[in-house]
Specification:
Elements lengths: L8 H18 L4 H8 L3 H9 L5 H11 L4 H5 L7 H11 L31
Length: 124
């Protein structure tokens, strides 16, 4: 079963407990052996495997013992590259305005008054 956003907290804990139990059994370890190896109490391991809440340090110790600690990197990455943040970074790189050239058409002679550019010609 894949974990998803629609699952309740209890359902997620129960699935994690089943997975941890499978990993322990695949390594051919009893609960007592695995708990001792992980440095946690047997009752704590039983609670974990039943899908009950335990201290985070107990979970980390068990994951380390099972060789699964690095999987937390995928579960909780250092940062998340949200699409909107990526778009904002890209927009910062693209110029938003053009700078007028010096001495070009934008630079009117000092004799002419400044205009908006939408004045009608007197004869038109």
């Amino acid at each position: 079963m894949h974990l998803n956003e629609l699952m309740t907290d209890d359902a997620v804990l129960a699935e994690l407990g089943r997975r941890l139990e499978r990993h322990r059994v695949q390594r051919n370890r009893t609960q007592a052996e695995m708990a001792e190896q992980a440095g946690i109490g047997r009752a704590t391991l039983q609670r974990l495997e039943r899908g009950e809440s335990v201290q985070m340090t107990s979970m980390i110790k068990l994951l380390r013992t099972l060789g699964l600690l690095t999987a937390l990197d995928a579960a909780v990455p250092e940062s998340i590259d949200l699409p909107i943040a990526q778009l904002e970074r890209e927009q910062r790189k693209v110029r938003q305005r053009a700078r007028g050239s010096r001495g070009g058409p934008a630079a009117a002679s000092a004799d002419e008054p400044w205009r908006w550019g939408d004045e009608r010609q007197a004869g038109a």
